[in-house]
Amino acid sequence: MTLSHYSWEEGSLPVIQQHSIAKHDVLREYLVEYLKTLAHNPARETLSLTLVDGFAGGGVYRHEDTRETVLGSPFVFLKAVEEAQFVIDQGRRKPLQWNLAYYFVEKKRRAQQHLRCALEARGYGARFDQDIHLVGGSFEQHADELVMRVLEKTPRSGRSIFLLDQYGYSDVPASRIRSIFHRLESAEVILTFAVDAFINYASDSPKTRKLLEKMDLPNLLKGRSIDSIKSKEKDFRLFIQSAFYEALVEQCGATFFTVFFIRTTGHGDYWLVHLSQHPRARDVMTTVHWNKNNHFIHYGGAGLNMFKTLGYDPAADSAITGQNELGFCFDSDAAAASVRALSLQLSPIIHATPDGVTFEELFTSTCNLTPANSERYREALAHLIAVKEVTATSPKGARRLSANTIEAHDNISVARQSNFIFER
Fold first, then answer.
1. Whether residue 135 is found in the same domain as residue 53
2. Residue 259 sits in which domain range?
3. Which residues contact 69 (CB under 8 A, 6 or more apart)?
4. What's residue 421's pLDDT?
5. What pTM value is reported for the model?
């Protein structure tokens, strides 16, 4: 993968590749579903949210393959909100009051000018300095100020989404993301990370050490040298990817996360990372990955051991791992494998809790370990109920017998006559 910055020269548009289209598709669907989730309570009268695009670009591109004009991430934010507003207001007796703010941050002056013109040409100019704010300079330069703007709009929750679509892997230090979560209780971060590009670049040179320090990951390889890893590890890429995954999620300080590869023509050039503080946000993003299965891929397992083997193992049983020669593809085979794996792995967890565990507690305590979403959890539990392994009971004592009836506060416990499932 060759990393290059976009260039907005007069009379031409920069070329955008399909993997960026995939990011935009996920961002749009996630925003729509996220807003629908926030507006689910019919008693809510006002919805306040700050949306920050930290690397906004010039707003308009030319598709690499089709040569068609493609709108960039600022328009994805705006159009997704418009779509969600329409859908949400259709189902409400009283329209929701929207209290939103958009901050589009761009460092390159020519791209800033291009974005301003693109927004004006599409009817958004009248909203400049009202709810749409164009910010010149780097995200790192303005990050503290942006956090303050979020707190002004939502002092208690700090509800916000930061899209940090960096050009490679070093523009957003892990400490910056940790600071956002420390100050904003309900913030979410969507980060792109070119892990394979780093592996291609990395060496035992002072430049690589300095780069890791800039990323706030100085001890990434825990004392091992790049040369040692490349010469001794069977698949050094997967080894380094696993180290990056562990260090990145730890140093960023998010409680919930997803880390999946955007599909490209290669083995998987970089990650789309979603970081949040709430399991519902994590579940919504994971569901989007399943819905957009042609865009994403995962090189680990299907169940609760997602990152124990962050790579394709040709000797592994695809019926259990959900992998094919491409990896875990979030397709129907991967879904079936996820349900099978979870059925085996959730059973001993439930057996270890004599008084049972709520569905919410079960999901929250394990969801970071799996590519499965809550739908696959419910299907796995429905299987365990069907074989009389566990029971699911509502707070009022109603028995749950099918996947779509299991709710957050239902108690999941061992059935009286249990047929314990052993993994073979």
1. yes
2. 15-297
3. 13, 60, 61, 62, 63
4. 52
5. 0.91
